[in-house]
Amino acid sequence: MKKGCFIKIIIVLTIFVAAGLFIIQNYKGKIKDFVFSKSKKTIKTLLINDFNKKLSHIKNSPEKDSLEAYMNVYFDKNFNKTKTFDEISERKGDKILSSLAEVLKDSVITKSDVERIKELINKK
Known about the structure:
Elements: H1 3-55, H2 62-80, H3 85-89, H4 95-103, H5 111-123
Helix pairs in contact: 1-2, 2-5, 4-5
Protein backbone atom coordinates (compact mmCIF):
# COMPACT_ATOMS: atom_id res chain seq x y z
CA MET A 1 0.00 0.00 0.00
CA LYS A 2 1.29 3.43 -0.86
CA LYS A 3 2.03 6.02 1.77
CA GLY A 4 -0.61 8.50 0.45
CA CYS A 5 -3.35 5.86 0.35
CA PHE A 6 -2.67 4.81 3.94
CA ILE A 7 -2.83 8.43 5.14
CA LYS A 8 -6.16 9.00 3.32
CA ILE A 9 -7.63 5.88 4.95
CA ILE A 10 -6.52 7.04 8.41
CA ILE A 11 -8.01 10.51 7.84
CA VAL A 12 -11.37 9.17 6.61
CA LEU A 13 -11.52 6.61 9.46
CA THR A 14 -10.76 9.33 12.01
CA ILE A 15 -13.57 11.52 10.63
CA PHE A 16 -16.08 8.63 10.83
CA VAL A 17 -15.08 7.72 14.39
CA ALA A 18 -15.27 11.37 15.50
CA ALA A 19 -18.69 11.82 13.86
CA GLY A 20 -19.96 8.60 15.48
CA LEU A 21 -18.73 9.64 18.93
CA PHE A 22 -20.25 13.10 18.52
CA ILE A 23 -23.65 11.65 17.61
CA ILE A 24 -23.57 9.16 20.49
CA GLN A 25 -22.58 11.77 23.08
CA ASN A 26 -24.98 14.52 22.03
CA TYR A 27 -28.04 12.58 20.86
CA LYS A 28 -27.99 9.51 23.12
CA GLY A 29 -31.29 10.30 24.88
CA LYS A 30 -33.07 11.27 21.68
CA ILE A 31 -31.99 8.11 19.88
CA LYS A 32 -33.10 5.98 22.85
CA ASP A 33 -36.52 7.68 22.95
CA PHE A 34 -36.97 7.27 19.19
CA VAL A 35 -36.05 3.57 19.22
CA PHE A 36 -38.12 2.84 22.34
CA SER A 37 -41.23 4.62 21.05
CA LYS A 38 -41.10 2.65 17.79
CA SER A 39 -40.51 -0.61 19.67
CA LYS A 40 -43.34 0.12 22.10
CA LYS A 41 -45.78 0.68 19.23
CA THR A 42 -44.68 -2.57 17.62
CA ILE A 43 -45.08 -4.56 20.85
CA LYS A 44 -48.50 -3.01 21.47
CA THR A 45 -49.61 -3.89 17.91
CA LEU A 46 -48.38 -7.46 18.31
CA LEU A 47 -50.24 -7.86 21.61
CA ILE A 48 -53.47 -6.49 20.17
CA ASN A 49 -53.18 -8.70 17.09
CA ASP A 50 -52.52 -11.76 19.25
CA PHE A 51 -55.51 -10.91 21.44
CA ASN A 52 -57.76 -10.47 18.39
CA LYS A 53 -56.56 -13.79 16.97
CA LYS A 54 -57.40 -15.57 20.24
CA LEU A 55 -60.73 -13.80 20.38
CA SER A 56 -61.68 -14.86 16.84
CA HIS A 57 -62.69 -18.40 17.90
CA ILE A 58 -65.11 -17.05 20.53
CA LYS A 59 -68.79 -16.96 19.61
CA ASN A 60 -70.16 -13.49 18.86
CA SER A 61 -72.00 -12.00 21.80
CA PRO A 62 -72.37 -8.70 23.65
CA GLU A 63 -69.92 -10.02 26.26
CA LYS A 64 -67.30 -10.59 23.58
CA ASP A 65 -67.69 -6.99 22.40
CA SER A 66 -67.46 -5.70 25.98
CA LEU A 67 -64.34 -7.75 26.68
CA GLU A 68 -62.72 -6.51 23.48
CA ALA A 69 -63.49 -2.89 24.39
CA TYR A 70 -62.12 -3.29 27.94
CA MET A 71 -58.93 -4.93 26.70
CA ASN A 72 -58.35 -2.18 24.12
CA VAL A 73 -58.66 0.38 26.93
CA TYR A 74 -56.26 -1.70 29.03
CA PHE A 75 -53.64 -1.89 26.26
CA ASP A 76 -53.91 1.84 25.52
CA LYS A 77 -53.77 2.90 29.17
CA ASN A 78 -50.84 0.70 30.15
CA PHE A 79 -48.61 1.14 27.13
CA ASN A 80 -48.94 4.91 26.99
CA LYS A 81 -47.39 5.28 30.45
CA THR A 82 -44.70 2.61 29.98
CA LYS A 83 -41.19 4.07 29.96
CA THR A 84 -38.82 1.07 29.77
CA PHE A 85 -38.60 -2.42 28.34
CA ASP A 86 -38.36 -3.79 31.88
CA GLU A 87 -41.86 -2.54 32.61
CA ILE A 88 -43.16 -4.36 29.53
CA SER A 89 -41.42 -7.61 30.44
CA GLU A 90 -42.81 -7.41 34.00
CA ARG A 91 -46.32 -7.59 32.56
CA LYS A 92 -45.93 -11.34 31.98
CA GLY A 93 -47.13 -11.94 35.54
CA ASP A 94 -50.05 -9.56 35.14
CA LYS A 95 -53.30 -10.75 36.79
CA ILE A 96 -55.39 -9.32 33.98
CA LEU A 97 -53.56 -11.23 31.27
CA SER A 98 -53.66 -14.48 33.26
CA SER A 99 -57.41 -14.01 33.91
CA LEU A 100 -57.89 -13.32 30.23
CA ALA A 101 -56.15 -16.57 29.34
CA GLU A 102 -58.57 -18.46 31.61
CA VAL A 103 -61.57 -16.75 30.02
CA LEU A 104 -60.42 -17.55 26.48
CA LYS A 105 -59.99 -21.29 27.16
CA ASP A 106 -63.59 -22.04 26.26
CA SER A 107 -65.61 -20.55 23.42
CA VAL A 108 -68.15 -18.72 25.57
CA ILE A 109 -67.65 -15.53 27.58
CA THR A 110 -70.03 -14.96 30.46
CA LYS A 111 -71.03 -11.71 32.15
CA SER A 112 -69.15 -12.74 35.29
CA ASP A 113 -65.95 -13.16 33.25
CA VAL A 114 -66.33 -9.69 31.79
CA GLU A 115 -67.09 -8.19 35.20
CA ARG A 116 -64.02 -9.85 36.76
CA ILE A 117 -61.73 -8.47 34.04
CA LYS A 118 -63.41 -5.05 34.30
CA GLU A 119 -62.75 -4.96 38.05
CA LEU A 120 -59.10 -5.90 37.55
CA ILE A 121 -58.66 -3.18 34.91
CA ASN A 122 -60.31 -0.56 37.14
CA LYS A 123 -58.03 -1.48 40.06
CA LYS A 124 -54.93 -0.61 38.02
